[in-house]
């Protein structure tokens, strides 16, 4: 469940009097075993408990059959925000963003359900004071760069996946702050970033070689 919080205060217009949203990167983890049953990441950090907290997961899997069919956070089914497949023959690097308004606890089991997969990785953020996502973007060709609008006081989270052995992230664009650059296995790399502030932002990532997919989502304050 992803709650669509209000983006305005009664009698005060379209949200200008709401406090700015905040974003906090919390944890990352990887499992490198081949399996078709769900990947369980136990006791992941999800941030400080709060009535206005949304937990966001960027999930990556190298899948031979099927897709990432679902993510649960603390036993709750998260909402898929954006999903991309960067295909390579019969195998593919798949990446998505999921969110759930989990208000209690500081850790949670995060379970990623996949088809037959070789490996899986997650990055976790806590967002505070956001409404429903206002924009998502995807890129899986060329330079991996897109424009995304962060409404005033809003936040954004982005992720990228790569299937070139030995590749690392050279840089994210100046509008986003890199939070991890993980070698899940020699042939699967994952990276995540976030941003704040209003206006049109460039979400881009440059790998030392290759690069399968880039995704991002923006949330307004709410």
Structure commentary:
With 222 residues, the chain is an all-beta fold. The chain has one domain (22-219). It has no helices and 15 strands. The protein has strands at residues 22-31, 39-45, 53-73, 76-77, 79-88, 91-100, 107-128, 135-139, 145-150, 155-162, 169-172, 177-185, 188-196, 199-207, 213-219. The strands form three sheets. Strands 1, 2, 3, 4, 5, 6 and 7 form a seven-stranded antiparallel β-sheet that branches. The radius of gyration is 17 Å and the shape is globular.
Care to give the gist of this entry?
The chain is mainly beta and 222 residues long.
The residue-averaged pLDDT reads 90
Q: Main β-sheet: number of strands, strand sense, barrel status?
A: 7 strands, antiparallel
Low-confidence stretches: 6-15
Query: Globular, elongated, flat, extended or rod-shaped: what is the shape?
Result: globular
What is the CA-atom radius of gyration, in angstroms?
Answer: 17 Å
The helical percent reads: under 10%
Q: What proportion of the residues form beta strands (DSSP E)?
A: over 45%
- N to C succession of SSEs: EEEEEEEEEEEEEEE
Q: Quaternary arrangement of the chains shown?
A: single chain
The number of domains:
1
């Amino acid at each position: 469940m992803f709650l669509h919080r209000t983006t305005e205060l009664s009698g005060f217009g379209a949200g200008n009097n709401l406090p700015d949203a905040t974003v906090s990167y919390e944890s990352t983890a990887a499992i490198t075993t081949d399996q078709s049953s769900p990947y369980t990441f136990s006791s992941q950090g999800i941030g400080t408990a709060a009535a206005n907290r949304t937990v966001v997961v960027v999930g990556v899997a190298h899948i031979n059959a099927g897709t990432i069919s679902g993510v649960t956070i603390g036993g709750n089914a998260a909402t898929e925000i954006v999903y991309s497949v960067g295909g390579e023959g019969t195998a593919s690097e798949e990446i998505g963003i999921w969110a759930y308004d989990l208000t209690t606890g500081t850790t949670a089991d995060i379970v990623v359900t996949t088809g037959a997969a070789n490996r899986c990785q997650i990055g976790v953020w806590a967002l505070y004071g956001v409404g429903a996502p206002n924009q998502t973007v995807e890129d899986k060709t060329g330079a991996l760069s897109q424009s995304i609008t962060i409404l005033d006081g809003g936040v954004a989270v982005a992720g990228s996946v790569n299937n070139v052995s030995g590749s690392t992230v050279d840089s994210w664009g100046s509008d986003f702050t890199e939070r991890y650059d993980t070698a899940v296995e020699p042939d699967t790399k994952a990276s995540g970033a976030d941003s704040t502030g209003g206006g049109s932002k460039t979400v881009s990532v440059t790998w030392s070689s290759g690069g399968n997919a880039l995704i991002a989502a923006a949330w307004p304050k709410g």
